[in-house]
Amino acid sequence: MKGILTLLTLIIFAGCSASEPEKEIFYLGTFSDDGLFVLEFDRESGSFSEVERQSDPPNQGFQAIHPDGDVLYSITREGLSEDDEQGSVIAYRIDPETGALSPLNRQSSMGAGPAHVSVDPHGRFLYVSNYSAGNLASYPLAEDGRIGEAVDVVHHEGSSVNERRQRAPYVHAANPSVDGRFLYVSDLGTDKIMIYAVDGETGELSPADTPWAEVEPGSGPRHFTFHPSQAYAYSVDELSSTVTAFRVDPETGALDNIQRIGMLPESFSEDSWAADIHISPNGRFLYATNRGHDSLAIYSIDPDTGFLELIGHEPTRGGHPRNFAIDQYGEFLFMTNRDDNNLVLFKMDQETGLLNYTGVEVEIPLAVCVTQHILR
Fold this sequence. Notes:
Elements: H1 7-13, E1 23-30, E2 36-42, E3 47-54, E4 60-65, E5 71-76, E6 88-94, E7 101-108, E8 114-119, E9 125-130, E10 135-140, E11 152-155, E12 171-176, E13 182-187, E14 192-198, E15 205-214, E16 221-226, E17 232-237, E18 242-248, E19 255-262, E20 273-279, E21 285-291, E22 295-301, E23 308-315, E24 321-326, E25 332-337, E26 342-348, E27 355-363, E28 367-375
Antiparallel strand pairs: 1-2, 1-28, 2-3, 4-5, 5-6, 6-7, 8-9, 9-10, 10-11, 12-13, 13-14, 14-15, 16-17, 17-18, 18-19, 20-21, 21-22, 22-23, 24-25, 25-26, 26-27
């Protein structure tokens, strides 16, 4: 592991508030034998130090944290046994002093190729998206955060126009609404964002009154995020390198398609695929990653309409940029680059939305996901 800290970075970090929490922990999922990394971030110096690694099982990808902040959930392609072709999901107890992890229990993901995990905002249920299996599993959570056996497994049906990538359903992510009443499921294979009503007692899923929103054929929705106002939502579309914007009906959960905008410069003609999407805490800017162009596309958000305007691109300083995180203060963006095995730190300009490379990089093998946690 290496940290690179330039004079510019020292200047950037000078003046950070001393009143902020003492410990900021980052969990790094990797497609490597090292599994899951736990790092502590020093906001004043902009440096990272390793706390531990959880390497059993290996190949731990996406994570989510319980709303109480005491349990982390991590998915892995590894099954519960050597001949198990399904993946699994693990619950870890978070040490409140160090951020270190202790395994609580583990359940089957109920399908091959788990790609995403999310938690109900009230801490009642866990959702796992299985890309290869084209299904979604819902689990109850015990009071201590342990994962119960799946109460519902929903299998999608259909296909779309890309004969190579959309021959079948490919469930990529599931995001609950802020009140937990609805679940929005991005299906790359069918070009739909499926909308489910959640049974608040059991966690079972049923189609909402408006059961899906469609994107342009061949788009391939991958990840999904809500605007802080909850009035708008955005899909990053992997195959077309676009962002699709929606207006959200808070009563029915329905999505109204209002805009589709490109993520790449007009002059770029090589292959590229979109990956992740997040919005700044102040709700003014949206960021999405390009794998191939190896950049973050940066947009301003019109607060009255939800429309996006592309304002720039920032090189990610690594190949195949996948997941990234924006800290809760809106000061920093943390980028994982799988092919260059690094975590890269950017300073955010809260007025313009643009990014400044700090010079801080941490070597993480096959890094694919980063999750921030504040120890209070």
